[in-house]
Specification:
The complex is a heterodimer of chains A (256) and B (257).
Chain A lengths: L5 E10 L2 E11 L4 E5 L6 H8 L7 E6 L2 E2 L5 H8 L2 E4 L11 H12 L4 H14 L16 H13 L5 E5 L7 H18 L2 E6 L2 H7 L2 E6 L2 E7 L9 H8 L13
Parallel strand pairs in A: 3-8, 3-9, 6-7, 7-8
Antiparallel strand pairs in A: 1-2, 1-4, 4-5, 9-10
Helix pairs in contact in A: 3-4, 3-5, 4-5, 5-6
Chain B lengths: L2 H31 L5 H11 L4 H24 L7 H39 L2 H7 L4 H39 L4 H11 L2 H27 L4 H31 L3
Helix pairs in contact in B: 1-6, 2-6, 3-4, 3-6, 4-6, 4-7, 4-8, 4-9, 6-8, 8-9
Classes of the chains: A alpha/beta (256), B mainly alpha (257).
Bound molecules: adenosine-5'-diphosphate (ADP) and magnesium ion (MG).
């Protein structure tokens, strides 16, 4: 068996007295697409941010290509970061920069590419997500939510990352735009041959973009398996979640 | 909660804040001196922090110089010392009022703007996005703002000083019947270069404080629009207080003979 692309071993994180991750174990194989499902506030974003080093886990180990990155900093972290692309939940575009410079940001700042060349690449990547060249010179605040997501996607793939993270890529979009984004995710991930990790509570999206699904509940991964097996998981938590039932073993905390 | 627990909690909170600020300051200083240095961003920030503050600093300095001349004239009048107006005006402005007024104006204008901008970037995950694009947010956001403020503030203050002296001159000559050329001669003869440089050193320190507090409060804002609003308030209040405290310390240090 090859080295997993990403491996989480016993990752724990608490904020104050509130335990969010309580020993997450997860393995992501190279060039696979894993989706983590789970209710709002269960720690999906915290999981992704722990892998990216934005949040430091209290315990546990995170390996990328077999390398322990849990405690690395500075230049070493920047080097590992170059393997990653990330689409944020709210797109998180830099509103002080035009669209093309958002897309080219990692190339210019992270890799020191010259601006003219980076701009050409940015315009190519924008074309990949279905945006024309005139959009490149607009400010992000002039775009609709769906267009911002596309720009965020172009930014995530701009530097041809080995690993791409998607944080709730379809949340807040209408069903048609959501489906367009799903298609773009599938095609771009295939295109660059990347390993993908997405988090969502949108089951339509999860089924479409994943080949494996894992469910996060109570700070742990309580089930994982191939996407095709999700309907016959035999796990009451999974069943309740994928069918969106109020009745079941999952109790929603009103206070997140 | 009993009284000791309350006091203990308050002390711990203050210490934790100070510790976090010290850590942040250390990271910011390290980011300023280590490559890459973003010259383009420093220039942009100098425009925003320095150039666009010129009107407000110029106006306040002008009125400050005018009112200073008037007060000294009226006060000096009590013991026949009206003639001292040009000397006191130029000394008060270059040593004290020039840098402090510029500092406080910048605290209101720039610390607030920086905290709001960085705070918004924080709550909309733009700062996290920087990290994922292999860019250190402290280096990209904080260092250029601090460098720009430290460079801009002495320049602003020098301009403010000149306009302040002009304000004093205009009031003295047109309203208090001073002789114009004698006023200017008295001003120039009395002024030492130390008076000006001490004020410029203060200005650079105030610039550092304003940018640092703006960035620090922005970076540590949380919880949506309200959190950003709070960060803005804290940035203005804390930098204003720190400017006045630093002013005292610097005056004691610079003029300690
Ligand atoms: N930086 C933080 N400080 C304190 N609490 C946090 C922080 N980030 C996340 N949390 C808390 O952790 C929990 C999980 O958040 P998150 O991972 O964003 O949920 P989701 O599964 O919806 O993405 C939430 O209750 C949230 O309030
Ligand atoms: Mg989330």
């Amino acid at each position: 068996m090859s080295t997993p692309k990403i491996q989480l071993i016993g990752v724990k994180k608490r904020f104050g007295s509130k335990v969010v991750l309580d020993g997450v174990d997860l393995t992501i194989e190279p060039s696979s697409s894993l989706v983590i499902i789970g209710g709002s506030g269960t720690g999906k974003s915290v999981t992704i941010k722990s892998i990216l080093g934005i949040i430091r886990p209290d315990e546990g180990t995170i390996l990328v290509d077999g390398e322990d990155i849990t405690h690395i900093n500075g230049a070493a972290r920047d080097r590992v970061m170059r393997k990653f692309g990330m689409l944020f939940q709210g797109a998180a575009l830099f509103d002080s920069l035009p669209v093309w410079e958002n897309v080219a940001f990692g190339l210019i700042q992270g890799r020191g590419m010259n601006r003219a060349k980076a701009r050409d690449i940015a315009i190519q990547k924008l074309a990949k997500v279905g945006l024309t060249e005139d959009v490149a010179f607009l400010s992000p605040s002039e775009l609709s939510g769906g267009m911002q997501k596309r720009v965020g996607l172009a930014r995530a793939i701009a530097a041809d990352p080995e690993i791409i993270f998607f944080d709730e890529p379809t949340t807040g979009l209408d069903p048609i735009m959501a489906d367009i984004i799903n298609d773009l995710i599938v095609s771009t991930v295939k295109d660059v041959g990347a390993t993908a990790l997405s988090i969502t509570h949108d089951m339509t999206s999860a089924r479409k973009i994943s080949d494996k699904i894992a469910m996060l509940y109570g700070g742990k991964i309580i089930w994982q398996g191939p996407t095709a097996a999700i309907d016959s998981s035999g796990n009451p938590y999974v069943d309740q979640f994928i069918h969106g039932k109020a009745e079941g073993p999952i109790k929603m905390a009103v206070k997140a | 909660m009993n009284i000791f627990a309350r006091i203990g909690y308050a002390v711990m909170t203050v210490l934790a804040q100070l510790g976090r600020l010290a850590l942040f300051t250390g990271k910011a200083l390290a980011a300023i001196v280590s490559p890459p240095i973003y010259f383009r961003l420093i220039l942009t920030q100098m425009m925003r922090i320095g150039y666009f503050s010129l009107p407000v600093v110029g106006l306040t300095a002008f009125f400050m110089g005018g009112v200073l001349a008037l007060q000294i004239y009226l006060g000096g009048n009590r013991f026949g010392a009206e003639a001292i107006v040009p000397q006191v005006v130029v000394l008060g402005i270059t040593r004290e009022l020039g840098p402090v007024i510029a500092g406080l104006m910048i605290a209101g204008r720039v610390a607030a703007a920086i905290a709001a901008e960085i705070g918004t970037m924080k709550v909309t995950e733009q700062i996290d996005a920087l990290t994922t694009l292999a860019t250190n947010p402290i280096k990209y956001l904080v260092a250029p703002r601090i460098v720009a403020a430290v460079i801009s503030m002495p320049i602003l203050t020098l301009i403010g000083d000149s306009i302040g002296v002009l304000g004093g001159y205009i009031v003295s000559v047109y309203s208090l019947d001073f002789n114009g050329s004698a006023y200017l001669k008295n001003t120039a003869d009395f002024l030492h270069s130390d008076d000006v440089t001490s004020g410029l050193i203060k200005a650079a320190v105030f610039g550092f404080i304003v940018a640092l507090m703006g960035c620090y409060n922005g970076f540590h804002s949380k919880g949506g629009a309200q959190g950003v609003g709070n960060a803005t308030t804290y940035a203005v209040v804390s930098s204003s207080i720190l400017i006045l405290a630093a002013d005292y310390v610097l005056t004691a240090l610079l003029f300690h003979k």
